[in-house]
Design a protein that fits this description.
Elements (H helix, E strand, L loop, with lengths): L9 H9 L5 H9 L1 H7 L6 H16 L4 H12 L4 H8 L3 H39 L1
Helix pairs in contact: 2-7, 4-7, 5-6, 5-7, 6-7
Protein name: RNA polymerase subunit sigma
Pfam families: Sigma70_r4 (PF04545)
GO molecular function: DNA-binding transcription factor activity
């Protein structure tokens, strides 16, 4: 009988390729597509979507976002409002909403970069331990 090879990391690689979470642009794309990714997680086996959304929410918690930054993201990406409408609801200008989102995505990307650095260090330590054996 033949072998069946299942690529368990395919979904994660696809999300990583599409959403470069180490920069603000990738975070903005991920936030923009959050509803679509969330809807795909209902399909059996799309655990990568669940993982990336969980990581995003955790990174947002760790990123020390200001209340204005969190609210801007919630209105624009969570409720799909325009920058203008979000600004009116928040009592600030469209440009202020855009700036709050820009700063927030930079902070979130910094968290992902930090996590990546920690992961790389852990891999280096593991590799060093193997060489000592």
């Amino acid at each position: 009988m033949g072998k069946i090879i299942i690529d368990l990391d395919k979904g994660a690689r696809e999300y990583t390729r599409k959403y470069a979470v180490i920069d603000a642009k990738g975070i903005a794309l991920l936030l923009r597509d959050g509803h679509h990714i969330r809807s795909r997680t209902y399909y059996p086996g799309d655990y990568a979507g669940i993982d990336i959304l969980t990581d995003l929410h955790q990174a947002m918690s760790v990123a020390s976002l200001t209340p204005r930054q969190s609210e801007s993201i919630a209105w624009v990406y969570g409720c799909d409002l325009t920058l203008d409408t979000a600004g009116v609801l928040m009592g600030i200008t469209k440009q202020a909403v855009k700036q709050a989102i820009c700063c927030a995505t930079e902070k979130i990307a910094a968290v992902f970069r930090h996590w990546g650095e920690l992961e790389n260090r852990m891999e280096e330590c593991k590799a060093g331990d193997r060489h000592e054996l």
